[in-house]
Design brief:
The protein is mainly α. It contains 3 helices and no strands.
């Protein structure tokens, strides 16, 4: 395979995806563009589901902490001062849903990689533009930043909502 700008006669993934007209090639470019946007959407769905599960757990942990605080006032238990740390582990169903979302997005990314391995310039440009448009539409950054006065300052923390750099496709 070598880099090419062919339109008619190009073949992607299988013999059944042989381009025989310029209209079919344009449809392929549009389809790859949309598939790339779908990949960015799936990545966003994964992040949103993770945030949803964490919010659910946070609400549950907060409610339990309030209940134990009120029980501690009526009994002889001494209330715990300072921050408390609670470890969260997803339920098997939550982890299954997370895994399915990840597997589907990984599969779509892999298919896009295989399509790009045709080394067709127009298709690769469609993938790149689709990734940019998909990021713009599906992954608008929203960060919650807590601003504290100098007397309340704590060690530097990363802003909630910012993600680490992705490692290899996802």
């Amino acid at each position: 395979m070598t880099w090419n700008w062919n339109t008619i006669g190009s073949c992607f993934l299988a013999e059944s995806w042989m381009i025989e007209s310029e209209g079919a090639f344009a449809a392929s470019c549009i389809g790859v563009f949309v598939l790339t946007i779908c990949l960015e959407f799936l990545r966003r769905v994964g992040k949103e589901y993770d945030n949803f599960v964490l919010r659910q757990f946070q609400q549950h942990a907060t409610a339990q902490a309030r209940n134990s605080k009120y029980e501690g006032l009526s009994g002889s238990d001494v209330p715990v001062l300072g921050p408390q740390v609670v470890t969260f582990r997803a339920t098997p169903l939550q982890q299954l849903i997370r895994s399915v979302i990840h597997a589907v997005s990984f599969g779509v990314a892999y298919i896009l990689m295989l399509i790009a391995m045709g080394f067709n310039g127009y298709i690769i440009i469609s993938i790149i533009i689709g990734a940019g448009v998909g990021k713009f539409l599906c992954d608008w950054m929203i960060a919650r930043i807590v601003i504290q006065s100098e007397s309340e300052s704590q060690p530097n923390k990363e802003a909630d909502g910012l993600e680490d750099a992705t490692v290899c496709c996802g």
